[in-house]
Amino acid sequence: MSSDTNKLLKQLDKKELYEIAKLKRINIPKDWSKTLIVELLGLNVSKKDIQTIVTKPSLMRASTKTRDGSAIIIKDLVKQFEDVTAVDGLNLEINEGELFGLLGPNGAGKTTTINILTGTSKPTKGTAIVRGYDVTKNLKEIKTLIGVCPQEAAVFKFLNARENIELFGSLHSMPKKELEERTDTLLELLDLAKVSKRKAKGYSGGMLRKLNLITALISDPEIAFLDEPTVGMDPRARRATWKFIESLKNQNKTIILTTHYIEEAEALSDRVGIIDYGRLIDLGPPQELMEKHGTKNLEEVFLKITGRRILEGI
Hints:
Number of domains: 2
Number of helices: 14
CATH superfamily of the largest domain: P-loop containing nucleotide triphosphate hydrolases
CATH class of the largest domain: Alpha Beta
CATH architecture of the largest domain: 3-Layer(aba) Sandwich
Number of strands: 10
Oligomer: single chain
CATH topology of the largest domain: Rossmann fold
Structural class: alpha/beta
Order of helices and strands: HHHHHEEEHEEHEHHHEHEHEEHH
């Protein structure tokens, strides 16, 4: 399989890969992971085949998606809770393979935005498109593409780490062998292998965050939403987790990171969006924002343009 063919195949979602397999008369089991499908198709189709196939009507959406390079498109998004406007006319595009940091104090609208993009909350107005799918119409398709690490640890404390991970993997219909291999790898990478058989109720806050991160990534999602992923970790564990998150970029994943740790966003993000009172007030690579506002760090940028500190209200 050439690197070009591999890259093209990875840009398509599983539904599109199955359509290509059908057109090429290749039989693929329904429970196969995207990685296995890509490997099989890579042995049977060429770059020219893919370029020809994606021009067919059923796959025109994928062709457009690849050209514009946007993983997420948000247009005039509004979310209201009675008399409170949590998201106020938000417009934003996040690129394929980008690590995008969403910054703002408590109540700025960060988590509400992620909840809309992941389908746990419906927008009041506006639209949000995730890899070509509308969050109000195609939530089932979107959920096959994403992994979510929420603020609160979403794990079962009466199960051990391995049992939690395998449970979440089975919900994604992962093949047993692949699930076992990815579980072993992620436990090792996040330094939980030695305590993987201990019940989660005995874990520290930082350990629970690591486990939460693994369950979000076990299905090898194309887009990962990480909402305050290092809260509760000590400085050493936090920095080790930064390295792990940074490594996800090398896998061409799109990552949306919210954090109150300004140095975290500064170290990891390709671009950051600063949000306050539900509105996007500035956007760009960290270094460019610092140069633009004549500051030494992003904390000073935020203070200068909002009059508030990023940690205010915590």
